[in-house]
Amino acid sequence: MNHLLRSHAPITSDTWDVIDAEAKSRLSVALGARRVVDFTGPFGWRHSATNTGRVGPVVPAPVDGVSARPRVVLPLAEVRADFSLARTELDAASRGAVDVDLSPLDHAALAIARVENATVFDGWAALGMTGIAQASPHDPIAVGDRPDRLAVRIAAAVAVLQQSDVGGPYALAVDRDTWVEITGGNDAGGAPLLTHVKRILDGPIVWVPGIAQPVVLSLRGGDFILESGEDLAIGYSSHDAGSVQLYLEETFTFRVATPEAAVALN
């Protein structure tokens, strides 16, 4: 029996297919951080920690002449977003309805994606994870309040990376407001800002919901590692006459291998 307990839910296999397809369509858009870092795994539900390759301070052993040092590991975060679907909607899906209300699932998918994205870029101190923007040794580049100058600031960030011998191509991870400015605005010379920025980066501009600030980072590989235990999956909690309680769940950890491979835009 799988720990997700899906077989216990009053949901037909065809309706599970509808639910899973909806989750995949929502998450494929919202999981922006995965598009710009190295994703390893999934290594399974029982995978609980990442080897950091480091050891702690020497501690005394119970026998004279022997010493010991603890291996340092980074625990995986077990993240879960609960939601509830109406049984009337699930019944409609089983009959082939195309307008099934799965909005609670959509909200849960965005929420858990925001947690993963925020951890990658801004860290999660309670679980010992440092984010890309936190780890960067470079001073953040101030963007100011002129969107038409955004391309110049991005070019300056790329220059900082190149001066640190960090090769490209480069990507720009953005919040909602910066995404709107880039896709809808022009640079100081009147050219479409999106075209100009893509030419500077030689890489993608990625919407990453949940991050605190835009970040320019290298896509050369090996600098930022998102490790998955159990990749995002839907499990069953309980049900009553009116609804079925489900959840989205994943386990992951994140490490920065090369802090100098990213620059934040403030």
What is the total domain count?
2
Mean pLDDT: 93
Distance between the termini: 49 Å
CATH class wording of the largest domain? Alpha Beta
Order of helices and strands: HEEEEEEHHHHEHHEEEEEE
The largest pleated sheet is described as: 5 strands, mixed
Give the structural class: alpha+beta
Q: What's the number of helices? A: 7
CATH T-level topology of the largest domain: Major capsid protein gp5 fold
Residue share in β-strands: 25-35%
Principal-axis shape: flat
What would you report as the Rg, rounded to the nearest angstrom?
22 Å
Could you say what the CATH architecture of the largest domain is?
Answer: 2-Layer Sandwich
Which SSEs are present, and which pair or pack?
Layout: H1 13-30, E1 38-40, E2 49-55, E3 59-60, E4 67-68, E5 71-75, E6 77-86, H2 87-94, H3 103-122, H4 132-135, H5 150-163, E7 170-174, H6 176-184, H7 193-201, E8 205-207, E9 215-218, E10 224-228, E11 233-239, E12 243-256, E13 262-264
Parallel strand pairs: 1-10, 7-8
Antiparallel strand pairs: 2-5, 3-4, 6-12, 7-9, 9-13, 10-12, 11-12
Structure keywords:
single chain; 266 residues; alpha+beta; Major capsid protein gp5 fold; hypothetical protein PF0899 fold; 2 domains; five-stranded mixed β-sheet; four-stranded mixed β-sheet; 7 helices; flat; Encapsulin_nc; encapsulin nanocompartment; Type 1 encapsulin shell protein; ENCAP
